[in-house]
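Q: Start with the shorter request: fold the first protein.
A: Done. Sequence, then structure:
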Amino acid sequence: MRSLSSLPISKLPVQHDASKLSSKISLSSSRHLSSNPNLIEPSIHCDQSHRLYDWCHLRSPTILDPKRATFSSRSLSPSMNPPIVEKVRPYPRKTDINSMSNIREITLTTKLSHSPCTIVHDTPALVFSIGGYTGNFFHDFNDGFVPLFITINTLFPDQEVTLVITNYTEWWYGKYEAILPQFSSRPIINLDNQTVSHCFPSVVAGLITHGPMTINPNLMPHRKSFIDFHALLEEGYRKCLVWPPPKIKSKPRLVLVSRSGAVGRVILNQDNVIKAAQEEGFDVVIFEPSAYTYLCDVYRLINGSHAIMGVHGAALTHSLFLQPGAAFIQVVPLGGDWLARTYFRNLAKGMKLEYMEYKVQPEESSLVEKYGKDHIMIRDPNSITNTNWSALHNIYLRSQDVRLDIGRFRSCLKMAYAKAKRSMEHQGNETLASKTTNGSLSSAWALIQSLQGEPIICDRTHDNYDWCFLNRPTILDSNSTTFYTIGSQHSQNPTTKPTIMEKVRPYPRKWENFTMSLVSEITLTTSLLDKPCEIYHESPALVFSVSGYTGNFFHDFNDGIIPLYVTINTLFPDQDVTLVIADFTNWWYSKYEVLLRALTKHGIVNLANQTSTHCFPSTAVGLISHGPMTILPNDHPYHKSSFLDFRSLLEIAYTKCHATPPPPLKEGKPRLVFMSRAGKVGRVILNQHEIIKAAEKAGFDVVLFQPTKFTYLCDAYRLINGSHGMIGVHGAALTHSLFLRPGSVLIQIVPLGNEWLADSYFKNLANSLKFEYVEYIIRAKESSLAEQYGLNHKIVTNPSLIIRGNWSALDSIYLKGQDVTLDLNRFRTYIEIAYSKAK
């Protein structure tokens, strides 16, 4: 059973005695409480069982008396119990008595207050301190932002909060202003300078930590991880203005975190280290941060680099800004083993960095000169540091410098270079794609920026889509699927400005005439509609169709969800939108409802059943597509989006929904999801049973998965996301590989005539999602077409000749008219390769 301390606030049982927590109380008890929060009997729940932190929750409408740092109840429900009082110092270093003595104590009480509310907030308060070791970059994150992320995602996973901060300093706010809105969109309250009362629905005081530089997904309701924390940092820092970093050369960039002066852990032969790194192939950038370093600049430098190295110290916390897959070299001085392992090795693992440790030998430490190589401080640092923090701090951290053995260090540099080179190639492929695409995000963004004054902006230059943007307040006349301008001077004075009208079929397959004929046409006009607004929306409308090939799982994503994601991140990168859907079907909405909620917080407007007028600040019609199963990273200055970001959105959506648990993993065996096809659908594996046995013999735990149009996607996500690989013949069902985690194995079996489709769709997808991709291209004798037409027929010997310009032949012969019988001996080689990657 989950610990109460890991439950969201909304699921916590009511506790009238904060010292007695009962795990037997129903976790759903809060569902039966009165809908009026003012009638809830006040209670306090505290968790004081942890070594590093305490937190308490006053479950009642509450009022803050800032002078006394006291939160009192304002519930209208009389309590039969005596008032409860709890005191918390909201900083997660409970065992550090000296540090905690400087943290302001916060009081929570169920005692009723009749004081009036000066300022009323509609979100719970989360109270924490930035005292303690704040000002040290490591502690700012280890004791501050990482616990704040954990606490919000543990206690308020689906809720906004108001941050109330004590021991406040203006420099701290100035330094971290870019990321604070990612934790809460509400203004921050500086508890120390308040002179008026504040009222909240409830209050939590204290921060939860999982240990030094650790985020444990198993302790989080939605299994948030350091990757999610990094995504939060990226969202914050990519929006702020920055000086451009050094131009990336054709070499992987290594950021060398430098130390100088009498601070300890200085690399005394840094110039030699830089030269060695350059000789191995790195472009080296020296980085020596201070308390006043502008983090937007730092983020852009490090996030655009491919490796970081430095001696153990607070500045290595900047490795949080690296992209997953980058190389991280930590130089570990004598006596620093435990700290290095506990702090930055944990961080590197959580961030999916390629981590390497270079442990300093005694002869490389300056302590040898001071104490001699036979001194116990040199021979056995652990005997000194295990019980004596003062000695660790004063001797091994503050008084030790290092002079690296360049010959020995080169081997570490060589490994780091190989890993960094791979990281650069991944980043480089994305950058190249964004520059060469005909439908790059920057072109759409630039078009909008260049035509800001125009009432209607359209882009009809692409082969597969059109889009138009009515850049005025608009009103929707649902009877005619037309968006009119509200109060437009163009419509009011037609003699000087002619009416503008544009029509769009909002589905990204405009080259297919028949398909597009099934898509509703949407009209945008600067004409005025003489009707009142009956429903107002605060966000722009984005109109698209779910007609066309909707119902085929591949097309649902390729022509729908993925272009929708691209369009939102192109046209509305910093805005929420209201989705207005043409050609709506209830089954589609039910199937993708969970995912749609991750794309917008507003209700969906079904264009087909509206009887009222709707008004919006502006309206975009149409979806932008980058091509088959492709998301080209956004080279808009602050909004670089990729398939990995799209997958993060899927994870955010599908980890929230209830799902049937998949079969348990078999100990020591990677799970392979086998995408099965049956019946007269084409591309069936006729010897499927033998293939499964071969996969099991190779070491896989095989789970059969045969999805239908009505498969519950929360169940599918949970099964596939918890697996290590997927195998199947080219077909729409392989789109479920979107649910695999990066690093998983995807085996695509490619029938005759399917090579182009296989490359364009799922090989592209696999590369973008960082899968280990394995392709098994069948030979003529493995195809059922050989039996039907003979091995020497041109349908078998030259499929490209048949297919060229003839989609009907591709569909009827090579997709629907072909099954496969795999050569077991040949296939075993591929499955063994796949197993080694999945393991």
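Q: Next, the second protein, separately.
A: Sequence, then structure:
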Amino acid sequence: MLISIDWIKDFVNLPEGLTPKEVGEKFTLATAEVEDVISIGEHLEKITVVEVLEKEPHPEADKLNLVTFTNGTDKFKVVCGASNVVVGMRTAYAPLGVTLPNGLTLEPKKIRGVLSEGMLCSEEELGFKEESDGILELAKDAKLGMTMLELFNETKDIILDVDNKSLTHRPDLWGHYGLAREFATVFRNELQNPFTSQWTQDLKAKTNSNKAPVTISVSEDSSCLGYFGLSVDNVTVGESPLWLSKRLKAVGLRPINNIVDISNYVMLELGIPLHIFDRDKIQDGKVVISKLASPTKFTTLDEIERDLIPGDTVISDGQKPLVLAGIMGGLNSGVDENTKNIFIEVANWKAAEVRSTSTRLGLRTDSSSRYEKTLDSLSLEKTLLRTLEYVLKLCPSATVNGDIQYDGPDLSKIPTLKIKSSQKSIATKIGKEISFEEMKTIFESLAFIVDGDASEFEVTVPTFRATKDIECESCLVEEIGRIIGFDNIDPVSPLVEVVPVKLEAAGKLHRKLRDFYAYHANAFEVMTYPMIGEALLNKAMYPVDKGLELINALSKDTELMRATMVPGFLEAIAKNAKNEDQFRFFELGRTYHSDEKKFCTEKSMLAVAYFSKEKTPFMELTNDVMRSLDATNISYQMSERHPKFKSAVVDEDWKGIHPYEFYNIRIQGKMDGVVFSVHPIVLKAFKIKGNVSIALVDLSTVESREQKDKTKYKPLSKFPGSTFDCTVVCGAEIPSANVLASLSKLKIKQLTASKVVDVFTLEDGNKAVTVRNHFADPEQTLSGDFITESSNKIVETLQKSGFALKQ
């Protein structure tokens, strides 16, 4: 949003000598972020009145002339293409170095071989008009050498470009009068209030008891929070005066005509949008505010036909819609050059409904952006009277026809917000000693009313700050803090007792799992989206379980609450597999499931994924999952697919499960865990080139219980152990666990562990399983003969079970 400091000065005197940068910095620290500071009118200080002395044709161009002129002291010569140049005329000259409003900086330049020393300017180049023909013709008595700033009694302006996001909670700052109140408080100056009770009486006195030519009717089910209207006759539509059009252009609006410009000007001044009708286009002399009952075509002022739906609030005349409430007027009721009689409308609308309609139509206007902030209905009448004041000023022949009309909720019943606090409470929370008198001064300069003393006082919040901004004592603390300047508060460490946080059982379990996978499994923790789309489920070929659908989803890709973490993991793997040959990651997240009794059941899940381009990481993942469950004292059993009992955490019929690389994890008698490799057909759908294994464990049943630490101290063995690896061949359909199961009957006391460390597919379709066996004896060093003998027993046992050594 653009703010004109010249406009602000209508209501408050700013300190002398402030630079534009200082104004912007002060406003940023106290109120809202200023993205840019723009100086306007500086070029007019350098552009002077000159008189043309000579005019001769350009030697190399038929349409150009060489013009010699004087500023009363020196002579200059420029190349000029204007057709209205005559000897003796007085015009405006911009010397070298001047930057014009269109961004052009004048530099020495040869035009068709002749050096030009600046430019004779048109009204368009000076920024006075959108278009103009020829150079500016000044009065004959215009003093030579006088600047344009002096000649036209212009003033320089500073434009602050404020970040709109900083003002979303401050509807009172969407008009220059509200902004002036902020400047008055920030710079500790008095706000000049032109809207006195006498001002109100004088303008109301211009109304009369005539029967109003337009009646107002507001339906109770509409989004209207109050509607004022007033009829004015005999207006003259024409070009706006220079002061009005100049201010509109300074803040980014294009002047149209005096009546339309007044409506825009008052909106920018007071922050309340309004609409002015051509009253002769209102049929039957009535205005009805209601919701549409059926779909309707409606052409707005921008000449675009829009499709309105039932429930959209419109302002109609009983025959047709005239205005899309809170957003934009209709082409069929707008003011044009033939307008003689007008109807001024100032209303307030429900923020949520304006936002909803505006978003659906893709139509965001200055009006809708203000109504979305929740405006103050008590400011409507003042806005109407201010509009009337300007209409009568710019159209001296205009007269008011009838009295002010109103319909809608009883505005006297709008509640007053009062908040209690104390000087000590606010000073303590800010961290700086501030006197009650200073607090009271700040509050009153912001239009708050303070009753009480330092020990306890009550603050009455003005209605324009109570719509959605000020709510509680913390808001009062913020008001004092930002005005005295947060940069003026010395940072102090809080005096609090540092006590270790007592974790619940779930927190302790999660911490142990995080530590294990980060420190012992070299895995990274990730967070995938809990909201997914049906398209992702289809891509993963996962059975589509609609589950829980979001009513107001951000997009089709986030319309479902995930019932499984697998598709999200595959998407994350696909992104990382483009840049890495192997990686591991894990997540402690939740899945969401429909529940007829509780509506929704959430499950706490551990998900782990290993990726490798060269070989399957299935056994590495299986071993790490077993180790993590052991480390957290969770009792479990690893098992193959069961013909009757299915996994509770993954659909075993899913195409993405590898036919052989699969283990169920039974926890407390339930199939609450699984380790599997992803089938190549699904990996291909995600363009993943490599091998992926995933583990899922439902922690819901175990995380709420305090896990007893079963760790027992056992001294390190004084004697070295030994390992024996052997690789056996078996059918691809035979689970690797069967190989380990065959060794369970061996009665070798020193055989402390056997585990599968590798599985790979052979050319003939069979698979090779590498088993690592560990020997150790706490009492003595194992002899070579013993290790050889025990290794032979292992091989013999494997062969008897049908697992021959790989040759």
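Q: Describe the second briefly.
A: The first strand starts at residue 2 and ends at 4. The radius of gyration is 40 Å.
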